[in-house]
Amino acid sequence: MDKLLRVNMTDLKVTDEPFPEEWTFLGGRGLTAKILLKEVDPTCDPLGPGNKVVIAPGVLSGSMAPTSGRMSVGAKSPLTGGIKEANSGGQAGQKLMRLGYRAIIVEGKAKDPEKRYLLVVNKQGYELKECPELKMLRTYAASEKLAETFSQRAAFILCGPAGELGLSGASVAFTDEGHRHPARHAARGGLGAAMGAKGLKAIAVDDEGTQARMPKDMKAFKELIARISKEYKAGPQLFQYGTSTTVPLANMMSTFPTRNRRMMQFDKADQLDGMKLVQNFATRGGGMHHCMTGCIVSCSNIIHDEAGQYVTSALEFETLALCGSNCEIGDLDKVAKIDRLCDDLGLDTIETGGAIGLAMDCGALPFGDADAAIALLDKLDKGDPLAETIGRGVVAVGKRFNAERVPAIRGQGIPAWEPRTLNATGITYATSAMGADHTAGLIVVPPNDAALASQNAQLINALCDSSGFCQFQQPTIEDIRTLYNLMYGGALTFEDAAELGWQCMVDEWEFNKRAGFGPEDNDLPAWMRTEAIPSNGAVFAVSKEEIMRVFERMPISDELRTMRAVG
Ligand code: SF4
């Protein structure tokens, strides 16, 4: 029988309880939303004992379904003050599900703020123990130290110094397949700070002695995943060389933030083209790999420097945009170093790049000065006040410098995908409980009905983020609901599965309403309605009435029946 694992950091007690049967089709993001709405006072201090950090694999994680081991982390966000879910690849999701745990709920707060704890979960059970040797270690050093103790099968979940310092741009790191680098992150919304505030430094998940979760209907399940894999391989495989190869397209479309979004095209965009990273594999080493077992997309690039030494992995489009062009840094190797530093400190690269770009705009350091940015970040865990402000994110930098033009929505820095150029994506940013988060529902091709397109994209992505599938696998609702039925012996219809995605959004909106958010918060910063992008003249031009349509469930459209999750 599946279980929930409850970790009380105040009493230092760990218990398990049966996973409610009525929640069988809840996992990942949908499960984090359900638990947070049920158990957390939305007005609580995000860094206080009343907040809870819920770590939940998807419904299909641990099974043979391809690319389905994603893991969600949810809590009240220290960055936005609302509910937040961020999900990550890496190995822990598959392993936790193979051990039969549908979620870990971390509650309370260590009484002694100087102490750090490690949770160990394996086939023998679970244990919470002190880990003074990991205190304030950067994530790579902490993972290496953990690797000395645990078997090669163990995966680690951990926060870096940014999380331990309570910085609201902090991420939760997950070790990846094979190398066990802490290079995969549930990055957005400061969830690393929520984890760090509890005194929980790391979780080790070892699935030694377990096997893949078996579907109720093995034959049909195997046939379906074979078809899904075949169709994927026969398709365009958009992410086979990673998201970083999107740079030329984004630049052409005027959605490549430059100089703190004063421009949306970068004159050195060709120097940040991810295909250069791919070409470098031949001389430097590295290559494409999958961050978790069972992924058939393999979008993760492993980046080496000129000397052939490993630097970082998964240098993504968003990182190249926010830490590169947005700061007018047109040098792949320098952006790779910033990415590594962010991963090592446990920081969200989108929030951090947005914060550095704004600090540059305010004159704190020169645009284009990569070395100054690297040196500043490197001081984050050494008590430097400006570095700490950067680690608190875009809004914190705006407050420090009294900036008028702050690129954030509901407290969260705006991703590369630009809402003035892509108005329908702007509707997602304005209405999603997640704030400015492209993974909530990205729309790149201008639709006929922008509000409907945003609602559909948000619904399918909420379901995808609950299933364990990676958005880059781009599953349909039909695929997800059929696999659910074959896995658990259910009888979900298409409408039932769509309702699971919608209910996740409703739970999140309800949490935010109880936290104090109102209709006035469902908009973009005023300057985005008046300041035109120089290269295409675009502004955000969606009426408030149109934005509000997203909150009313629209009838299931033909488009939703065939559309794919959007990564
Ligand atoms: S597609 Fe990329 S991000 Fe998704 S699981 Fe595979 S390697 Fe990880």
Helical fraction equals 25-40%
| Total number of beta strands | 17
Cofactors and ligands = iron/sulfur cluster
Structural class: alpha+beta
- Name the poorly predicted regions: none
| Rg from alpha-carbon coordinates | 22 Å
Categorize the overall geometry: globular
Q: What is the helix tally? A: 21
Looking across the biggest beta sheet, what order are the strands in? 2-1-6-3-4-5
Strand content: 5-15%
Structural features, described:
The chain is an alpha+beta fold and 567 residues long. The chain is built from 21 helices and 17 strands. Strands 2-1-6-3-4-5 form a six-stranded mixed beta sheet. Strands 8-7-12-9-10-11 form a six-stranded mixed beta sheet, with helices on both faces. Strands 13-14-15 form a three-stranded antiparallel beta sheet. A hairpin with a 2-residue loop joins strand 7 and strand 8 (125-130). Helix 1 (28-39) crosses helix 16 (450-467), helix 9 (317-324) runs parallel beside helix 11 (349-361) and helix 10 (332-345) runs parallel beside helix 12 (370-378). The mean pLDDT is 97. Bound molecules: iron/sulfur cluster (SF4).
